[in-house]
Amino acid sequence: MTSPAAPPQPARLIDHFQYGLDAPICLTWELTYACNLSCVHCLSSSGRRDPRELTTAECKAVIDELERMQVFYVNIGGGEPTARPDFWELVEYATAHRVGVKFSTNGIRITPDVARRLAASDYVDVQLSLDGATAGVNDAVRGRGSYATALRAMENLRSAGMSGFKISVVATRHNIGQLDAFKALADHYGAQLRLTRLRPSGRGADVWDVLHPTAAQQRQLYDWLVEHGENVLTGDSFFHLSAFGGPLPGLNLCGAGRVVCLIDPVGDVYACPFAIHDTFKAGNVRAEGGFTRVWRESELFADLRRPQTGGACTSCSAYDSCRGGCMAAKFFTGLPLDGPDPECVQGHAETALAAAGRTVPAAGQDHSHRRKPVFVSIGERPHAERTPPVSACAEHPLAGFRPTELP
Amino acid sequence: MPSFDMAGPWTLHPQVAVRPEPFGALLYHFGTRHLSFLKDLRLLAAVRLLTEAPSAADACRTAGIREDELGRYRAALATLATSRMIVQRTPSRADEAP
C-alpha cells in the first residue's frame, strides 16, 4: 500500500516511524466483543457483548478525535462489528467526518441490500474473514456454516458491483496449501486477497501450537508472497519472514504504539490488535484527554517509541530485516520480548519454546461464549396469588379465574 | 518513467487528505485507499501549490525548487499522478475542482 513518491532522501521512513507519530496512521477499533461465531483462534476471545461497551455517543466522540488527529482510516472489527445496532450509524458518522472505514466481518449481515449500500460508498471498505478455501478447512476453525455465510456475502458484494473488497485469511497449518485456491477465489469475486499471520493472542493461545505453520510451510508462504508481491495484502504481518532473504512489500516494522494501536469495545487502548493484555494497555478513551492523550502521553507508548535493543537477536545477521519479529507473538508464547520470535525462520526460538519451564501468560480478558449452559431457576413469587396474567384487554378464558384449591 | 506534463495545470485529487508530519507529509487517497509518504518538504510545498499555479513547473519554482532539480521533482510528481494523488485540471478557473 506504500508508494514512495519523493526524490531519494537519506532518512528511511522506518527511521521516522519507529519513534512514533503524533497520530496513528490507522488504528484498529474493536467495536464489540459480541459475535455470532466462536472461531478457535479469535484474537480478542470474542463471543459475549461486554456491558461496559462504549455508547453510540462515546464512539462518536472518539471519531471526532480521530478526525482532529487526521487519522485517515480505522479498521473496525470485533467481535462481529455489524452485531452492534448502531454499526451503520457509526460508519456513516465516521465517513462524514473524513475518517475512512475498513471493517472486518464474517459476512452474517452482508445482505444484498447492505452490499448495494457499501458499493455506493467510496469511504468504506469491507474485509471478509475466511480461513479455508474449502468449507472443511474453514469451518474447522470458524465454525459450521461460516464458509457458506462468507461466500454468500461475497456473492452479494460482487452482485452489487463492490469490487476490490478484501478476503482476509489467517495463514494456518491447514490452509497454507490452499494459497492458490484463495487467490482464485479472490479473483473470481473481484476481490483482493489479504493474508495475515496467526497470532497466539486471545483464544489463539490455545490453538497456536497445532495451527501455526510449520517451518517448511513458512518458507512456502514466503516464496508465495514474494511471487505475488503487491497484489496480495499482508497488513505488514509477515515481516519476521524477511529473514529468509529480501524484504516483503510493506514497512517491515512493528508499528505497535508507534504508528498503530487498538481501541477495544470498552475503550481500552492497547499497543496493537494482537496485544489485548494489561501489559500492553496504554489507557482508556473515557479518561480525561481522551484517545489523544493516551496516544501522545502514555508511558507505555513512550517506552515503545524509545530505541529498542535486539537483545539475544543483536548478533544475528538477519536482525536488520526481521527486527526480532512480533512482540505479541513472543509475549503470548512466554518468550522474552528482546529475543527471537517464536517463528524465527533461523530456528533461534526452538530451544526456548522447548524449554521445560516455559509458561505462557494468563489471558487478559475472555468474552468467549460460555460452553456450558448457565442454569437459572425460576421459582414462584412467594405469597403471590396464583393467577394467570391479566391485562386490560384480556380475553383469556381463564382471566380473572382464581383457583382456590391450590396449596 | 511515466510521462508527466510539467507545463500543464494540476491539482490534488479532491479525495486526497494531506497530513503534515515532521518528515514531510502523509497523503491518503480515500478512493483508491492508497497511502503515500512525502519525505521532501519542498515537494510537499509544490503539491500544495499545484491548484493555484498555472503549471506544475510554476508550482515547483514557487516552492523553491531550482531549475536543475526539476527533473527529479518531475519524476516524483509523475509517481503521484500515476497513483492519482494529483490529477490534471482544466486551465479555466471556473472548471477547477473545489
Q: Can you summarize this structure?
A:
The complex is a heterodimer of chains A (407) and B (98). By secondary structure, chain A is α/β, with parallel strands linked by helices.
Structural notes for this entry:
The complex is a heterodimer of chains A (407) and B (98). By secondary structure, chain A is α/β, with parallel strands linked by helices. Helices cover 29% and strands 11% of the residues of chain A. Chain A has 14 helices and nine strands. Chain A has helices at 13-17, 56-68, 87-96, 112-119, 135-142, 146-159, 179-188, 204-211, 215-228, 290-297, 299-304, 319-322, 327-332, 350-354; strands spanning 26-30, 73-77, 100-105, 124-129, 166-171, 192-197, 262-263, 268-270, 281-284. Chain A has a nine-stranded mixed sheet. In chain A, β3 (100-105), α4 and β4 form a beta-alpha-beta unit. Chain A is globular. The termini of chain A are far apart. The model of chain A is unreliable at 6-10 (pLDDT under 50). Chain B has 98 residues and is an alpha+beta fold. Helix content of chain B is 30%, strand content 23%. Chain B has helices at 41-49, 56-62, 70-82; strands at 10-12, 16-21, 24-29, 34-38, 86-88. In chain B, the strands form two sheets. In chain B, strands 2-3-4 form a three-stranded antiparallel sheet, with helices on one face. A two-stranded antiparallel sheet of chain B has the order 1-5. In chain B, a hairpin with a 4-residue loop joins β3 and β4 (34-38). In chain B, α1 (41-49) packs across α2 (56-62). Chain B starts with 9 loop residues before the first strand and ends in a 10-residue tail after the last strand. Classes of the chains: A alpha/beta (407), B alpha+beta (98). Chain A binds chain B through residues 1-7, 9, 11, 13, 16, 21-23, 25, 70, 72-73, 98, 100, 102, 122-123, 125, and chain B through 15, 17, 19, 21-24, 26, 28, 30-31, 33-40, 43, 69, 72-73, 75-76, 79-80, 83, 85.
